[in-house]
Amino acid sequence: MGFSILGLAWRSLMNRRGSALLTILAVALSVALFLGVDKVRNGARAGFDNTISGTDLIVGAPTGQINLLLYSVFRLGSATAEISWDTYESIDGRDDVAWTIPLSLGDNHRGFRVVGTNESYFEHYRHGGGTQLRVSEGKLFSDIYETVIGADVAKELDYSIGSEIVLTHGLGAGGLTDHEDKPFIVTGILAQTGTPVDRSIHVPLEGITAIHVGWESGTRSPFADTISEDMIRGFDLTPKSVTAVFVGLEQRGSLLRTQRALNTQGGEPLLAIIPGVALGELWQVTGIVERALIAVSVFVIAVGLVSVLTSILTSLNERRREMAILRATGARPGHIFFLMVAEAAMLGLCGAVVGVFLVQLGLLIAGPILSSAYGISIGGLGISAIDGWTVLAVFGAATLIGTIPAVMALRRSLADGLTVKL
Amino acid sequence: MTTPPVIDLIDLRFAWQDGPALLDIPGFRLEAGERVFLRGPSGSGKSTLLGLIAGVLEPQSGKVEVLGHDMTALSGPKRDALRADRLGVIFQMFNLVPYLSLVQNVTLPCRFSSARRQAAGGEGRLNEEAVRLLSRLGLDGERMLSRPVTELSVGQQQRVAVARALIGGPDLIIADEPTSALDADARDRFIELLNEEAGRSGAALLFVSHDASLASHFDRSVDLAEINRAKGGV
Known about the structure:
The complex is a heterodimer. Chain A folds into two domains: 3-48 and 287-416, no CATH class; 57-273, no CATH class. Chain A is 54% helix and 15% strand. Chain A contains 13 helices and 15 strands. A five-stranded parallel β-sheet of chain B has the order 6-7-8-3-9, sandwiched between helices. Chain B has helices at residues 46-54, 76-86, 102-106, 108-112, 114-119, 126-136, 142-145, 154-166, 184-201, 224-227; strands spanning 7-14, 23-30, 35-39, 61-66, 69-70, 87-90, 172-176, 204-209, 220-223. Chain B contains ten helices and nine strands. By secondary structure, chain B is an alpha/beta fold. In chain B, helix 8 (154-166) packs parallel to helix 9 (184-201). The chains are: A alpha+beta, B alpha/beta. Chain A binds chain B through residues 1, 4-5, 7-8, 11-12, 14-15, 321-322, 324-335, 414, 417-419, and chain B through 47-48, 50-51, 54, 56-57, 76-77, 80-81, 83-85, 87, 89, 91-92, 94-100, 104, 108-109, 111-113, 116, 164, 176. Chain A: Residues 21-208 form the MacB-like periplasmic core domain.
């Protein structure tokens, strides 16, 4: 039978193309939801995994390890406490430590986080499996009132070399707490990395200290305006504290020993975390939500498949005569069965394939937004094995479901014989 | 060698489920190439009898021989194959599959039977054969053939059904009240055409109708009430 019956099934579907298209759309949307959830999940994971590499330990004031990871690396949330400069220096001075990157967080500029740091950041910070940060325009900062901005900051705020930036105290939207008396000058713009670095504004640690002169109480002191830039330059601008420290070790073999030493040292209490371990813990937490989302989207696919069943079942009554004609002209029960199953399978297959393309279309349109707003890299989210398996599974399930109307049509056509009393 | 009768019914008994016997026919024959008119009022079991002959229904007892095959001894698929290979069926109305073109409707039996496909000239010449049959029945021209079948008049639809019954030269054509939806004029022309084409292809014709006035068109006329002893029919 083969192709001649498939041809019949196709023509029969086209004859009811309105309802067939709706059914295909229902399946397509359900498949798109499932694949979309999966792709965003993978994209988010890949994005996070790519954000930091080469850093052996992250050290901060005691808090949850996920919290420390989120605010230090992903610039999400905020620190509740800081560690003193003396403690930072003692970490930097350890024999087993090769390099450190001090980070001072807590200010922002029009929604972009400000990171106080030093040259070590640009030398040692690695992302995407070992890539160093690269200045695409200009140069690194060399003065306390200079800044190097991420690619997205430059793009979205339309900044170029020489632009002046006023930082805002805290993480609010700006306004009353602007450090407008102390603008920074953009000296460099970093190349795109696909990480939160793109959305960060990097200034020297001393710059952070400088803009907070006169703000020691947390708000602007009435005397702040009386302090001139020259006076500030005359102060000792060594920071009193930093928010977090990225640490690179001499030998990775000493990782656990160094971590334990930092966590249990006398003096100021510290939390040292291994980024990969903290990420693993983060995925455990999000895994529950992911599984729930996947489960929901699998159910939605089931609903899509039920719509295949509905559309064929509702057509059965009006097709009794058609079945009788087919029987009379020589169709065996197997032909009728195959015809109905083929219709269901075609609806399922078309729906699944359209769904795969909907997701790709969606990524094409929404990808840049996801990537800039959430740092979800959509590179490598093209058509993959999971798409193929999903299409195959939906096709198989639709075929299986098709046996229900097939058996019904079969029974009816056997009972009706050649004449249908309508 | 003598050709076996196209239809040979012996002591045929049939009832729907637990109902009274609808058909009880001691004997009925249709010889090869014969064109017979079978008359019976509606509800007398005509359609059921055709279902038995076509092999989609099975009798409770007795024998239905079609083209030398004992239908009661054949398996379901074998009966289906016999029907696909050697029978043509025309219904009262709604004979056509709405989503197929005229030509596709005519070649429909060839989708299910390779013997029928071969007899109609083989894969490559099916459409040609369908067009030829349609034009013999007065349906020709690009415009006519490209029309959706649902737009055809009832008379035109019935002629397409005749072309479908004739394709691949079957040995028996069964027609179940094919003219009841036609007016008198169209009816006579339709029967002449059917007779002529059946005669040309050498097929036997079993024409069933309640309308006794049609009997004059056929070689022989049989009243179902004469051959059926059962009184179960309504």
